[in-house]
């Protein structure tokens, strides 16, 4: 794609801003900032990845993956405002998920141990784990508020925080995985996923592109389950005070 052709895509942004003005949505400023930020960020990432791919140094791969996890944890941690050290717990859950996913992919020789494979797959895994973490925390807040009386009754009857929170945790984990599971059910029928589409546009064989997409779908589902379960185990005590009372958020 030429720079000139790419510049024409700004028309889509202009149309969106015109609709916002027409409907008085007040989104013009956010759209403009988002457009500039996304373009600058993606261009910078492109040059950084080009440098890493050319250098092929393991330390650089570790640095970029650690940076992804840090940004993802901070962003998802905003959903858990009021919970102590929540970003650290999210980082731990995402790190474990990333290590398990890449360990299996590399250990079973499913993908090659090169930056061209590790970084994109890690980015997709970490991004999916970030979304799942945010969904889990949002649902936890709603579940705790809705089940406050039930939880406090169980605590008064001598139940441990873990037992009092068991049903809430289960519902929250299930809810955080719904988008991933729904995506599995409709992949290829409702939409052609980004990785598969990109490979086809780049000239890859469609069947080969589908194989890689199946890999991503299965990895996403597994990472979603692992992230939400680990996060539930690490954070449920954060909803209680030191004397085992339900914390007021």
UniProtKB/TrEMBL annotation:
One of its GO terms (cellular component) is plasma membrane. Pfam families: UPF0014. Belongs to the UPF0014 family. InterPro entries: UPF0014_fam (IPR005226). It is a multi-pass membrane protein. This is Iron export ABC transporter permease subunit FetB. It comes from Paenibacillus xylanilyticus. Its main location: membrane. It is found in: Membrane. Keywords: Membrane, Transmembrane, Transmembrane helix. The chain crosses the membrane at residues 6-22, 34-53, 59-76, 88-111, 117-137, 186-204, 210-236. The gene is fetB.
């Amino acid at each position: 794609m030429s720079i000139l052709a790419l510049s024409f895509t700004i028309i889509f942004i202009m149309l969106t801003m015109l609709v916002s003005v027409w409907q008085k949505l007040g989104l013009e400023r956010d759209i403009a900032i988002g457009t500039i930020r996304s373009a600058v960020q993606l261009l910078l990432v492109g040059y950084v990845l080009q440098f890493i791919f050319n250098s092929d140094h393991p330390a650089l791969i570790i640095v970029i993956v650690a940076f992804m996890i840090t940004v993802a944890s901070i962003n998802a941690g905003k959903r858990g405002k009021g919970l102590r050290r929540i970003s650290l717990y999210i980082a731990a859950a995402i790190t474990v998920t990333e290590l398990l996913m890449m360990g299996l992919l590399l250990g079973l020789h499913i993908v090659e141990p090169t930056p061209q494979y590790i970084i994109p797959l890690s980015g997709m895994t970490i991004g999916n784990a970030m979304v799942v973490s945010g969904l889990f925390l949002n649902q936890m807040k709603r579940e705790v508020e809705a089940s406050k009386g039930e939880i406090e009754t169980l605590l008064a009857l001598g139940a441990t925080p873990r037992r009092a929170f068991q049903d809430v945790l289960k519902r929250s984990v299930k809810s955080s995985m719904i988008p991933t599971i729904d995506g599995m059910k409709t992949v290829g029928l409702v939409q052609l996923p980004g990785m598969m589409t990109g490979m086809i546009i780049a000239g890859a064989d469609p069947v080969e592109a589908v194989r890689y997409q199946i890999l991503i779908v299965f990895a996403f589902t597994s990472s979603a389950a692992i992230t939400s379960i680990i996060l539930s185990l690490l954070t449920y005590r954060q909803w209680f005070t030191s004397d085992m009372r339900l914390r007021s958020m």
